[in-house]
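$ ./design --mode recover --in tokens.txt
reading tokens...
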């Protein structure tokens, strides 16, 4: 398989075709593209980048305050480097998000290299992340995004994949390398932490009640906003 560099990834991302148009042109499945890419078809690799770059960009958007595109590009570069270990037991999409999660963790470790890091207890705010780069209009949406950034990173990753990428327990387990029942347990625990985070943030009881009562609904609205911004269709 031809090696694809960060420059190739950046060139693909800046292609004149918008992601929405690219989705209309794509007819091959991820697995078909993967097999073609492994066989030396660089266009197949570029097609995979176009298909998934928006989602990977979204993965980093509410967790880091800068270098988002660089981290997304690095994820695809790492994906190529790790391809020898990809045997098709999981979907390419879950494999890619697994790489993205590792890239995120490495970024925070480098940023906080002089102090211990615990992703099970520390949030991105605890580790020095600035304001989110995601712009939303409703107070409930802003509250949800900020509350997510104030729960442990491990829980934030689980919930954002669950809500925004429609990941199942099985898929979460593949990404995080944990059993499916454990993945569902983490989703439940993360929801509890999110509600507590919302309660600590909100001065308005009305906004708090609205957000907590319809957490799934507000998460879906944030997901729709993110989808519109990055040009990728929402997962069904």
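writing sequence...
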């Amino acid at each position: 398989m031809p090696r694809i560099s960060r420059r190739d990834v950046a060139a693909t991302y800046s292609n004149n075709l918008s992601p929405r148009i690219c989705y209309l042109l794509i007819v091959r499945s991820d697995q078909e593209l993967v097999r073609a890419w492994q066989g030396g078809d660089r266009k197949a690799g570029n097609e995979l980048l176009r298909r998934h770059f928006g989602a990977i960009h979204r993965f980093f958007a509410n967790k880091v305050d800068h270098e988002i595109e660089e981290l997304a590009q690095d994820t695809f570069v790492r994906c190529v480097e790790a391809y020898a270990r990809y045997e098709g037991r999981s979907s390419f999409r879950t494999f890619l998000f697994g790489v993205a999660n590792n890239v995120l963790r490495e970024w925070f470790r480098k940023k906080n290299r002089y102090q211990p890091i615990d992703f099970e207890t520390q949030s991105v705010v605890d580790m020095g992340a600035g304001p989110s780069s995601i712009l939303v209009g409703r107070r409930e949406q802003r509250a949800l995004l900020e509350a997510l950034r104030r729960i442990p990173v491990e829980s934030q990753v689980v919930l954002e994949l669950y809500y925004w990428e429609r990941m199942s327990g099985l898929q979460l387990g593949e990404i995080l390398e944990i059993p499916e029942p454990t993945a569902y347990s983490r989703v439940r625990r993360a929801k509890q932490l999110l509600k507590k985070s919302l309660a600590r943030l909100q001065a308005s009881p009305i906004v708090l009640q609205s957000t907590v009562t319809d957490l799934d609904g507000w998460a879906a609205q944030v997901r729709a906003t993110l989808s519109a911004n990055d040009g990728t269709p929402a997962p069904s």
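exit 0
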